[in-house]
Amino acid sequence: MSKVEKQPFSKTMTEIKNVFLDTFLTKNIVLVQAIGITPILAAGVTLQKGVVLTLCTAAVLLPASLFMSLFGDKLPTWVRAPIYSVGAALILLGAAVLLDRSVSNELYASLYVFLPLTAVNTLVSYRAGGFSVSHVPVVALTDAIASSLGFGLVICVVSALREMASFGTLWGETLNFAIVLPEAALPYAAFLLLGFMAAFLQWIQSVIARRENASVRLNG
Q1: Could you tell me if residue 142 is inside a domain?
Q2: Prediction pTM value
């Protein structure tokens, strides 16, 4: 059994903010690290589905990250993935029942194939099984929240755009678009949108970097 040594971390708001911004935007889990793309391509066709998948991802990732931060370094490496996968499956079973009985049977029927896959989503294994094990709980939870929000931002934007283009609706409400493109519901459309979003993020980062360099030269 290998014990992972915790990295030192000063619990200040500035450091927590840096971890959050870095995970949420600078190294966005989807746009930069290309993790968690499958549910976006396959199920992110309406804003409602995007929101549900975001909530389910957060419901799995937060407790998994906290658990792995507290106990992960005490467990053999080979047993970590089965433990948080089983825990994720139990959480999603409850989420599926809640969605089916209390929210929308139709929404559940369209997502029931994808909800179990969230339990083994590479996003969960990468962050909870990797990052959280070597960090203290407050950092692990900050990273889990930022990862969930980063994934949620991307899937909700992609889902909303695909819904508007494919069905002329947003959150099920008709927008009375003159042109409707059913092809936007196909996976290749999501690939294109992800590519544009990733390029836009890189452009923003390059603009910020140039301005910072210019400011340093002027002040220097």
Answers
A1: yes
A2: 0.86
Q: Categorize the per-residue pLDDT at 110 as very low, low, confident or very high, splitting at 50, 70 and 90.
A: confident
116 lies in which domain range? 13-219
Count of structural domains within the chain: 1
> Rounded to whole angstroms, how far apart are CA atoms 112 and 96?
7
Cα 148 from Cα 59, distance rounded (Å): 9
